[in-house]
Amino acid sequence: MDHVHVGVADMPMAARLKAIWNALDQVTDPEIPVVTLRELGILRAVQLGDDGVPEVVITPTYSGCPAMEQMADDVRAALAQAGQPARLVTQLSPAWTTDWITPAARDKLKAFGIAPPAGSAHVNLPGTIQFSRRSRQNDAVACPQCGSDQTTEISPFGSTACKAQYRCLACMEPFDYFKPY
To answer: pLDDT by residue (tens digit) across 90-138?
Structure first.
């Protein structure tokens, strides 16, 4: 009796897309390994390209993000390990916003010692993003260690460009704050 080998190309497309998402759900941020790229909103979509090849759409947190190349390599490696060929597409518009960070990721950031972003960006008109923030002097950034809102910004630059360095005045611990974009 001959055995028929079922390859990736023989899988129904819905099953292939689900397998791709399952592989992608394991890819963590190289700078914050407790959250996945999907939870951060960096992985935007898995879609079919015009030629029928699955495409993974990613949006960098900002255009000069030094971790973007590592993220792309990690996505490709996860897809290869899962045997799911797909093309990687970088999409810059709409621009990434911290509003895309899931509630679960915000909880994970806090548990990891990083204050999740306060304030938000919101879509005002189709295709445009309007940013709304309180002034820094009035921002109450809660300490992820003790929960106190008696904190002060030490530096607008933290361990990465998307974070600022803060200190809690109650427990005196320094911490990163994920800046809202």
So the answer is: 999 999 999 999 999 999 999 999 999 986 655 443 444 444 443 344 5
Q: How many CB atoms lie within 10 A of CB 159?
A: 12
pLDDT tens, residue by residue, 18-30:
999 999 999 999 9
Interior angle at CA 31, CA 29 and CA 32, nearest 5? 65
Sorted by sequence, the CB contacts under 8 Å of residue 116 that are 6+ apart come out as 101, 105, 106, 107, 109, 110, 178
d(CA 18, CA 7): 15
- Quick one: tokens of 109? 């950031």
Q: Domains in the chain, start-ordered, CATH in brackets?
A: 8-90 (3.30.300.130), 99-178 (no CATH)
- Mean pLDDT, all residues of the chain: 85
**DSSP conformational letter for 106:** H
Query: What separation in angstroms does the CA of 131 have from each of 13, 89, 100, 119, 125?
Result: 38, 26, 14, 9, 12
Alpha-carbon distance of 136 to 150, in angstroms, equals: 13
Q: Give, for 80, the enclosing helix (H) or strand (E).
A: helix 68-81
pTM recorded for the entire structure: 0.79
Cα 181 from Cα 177, distance rounded (Å): 12
Only one residue has tokens 């960098």, namely 60
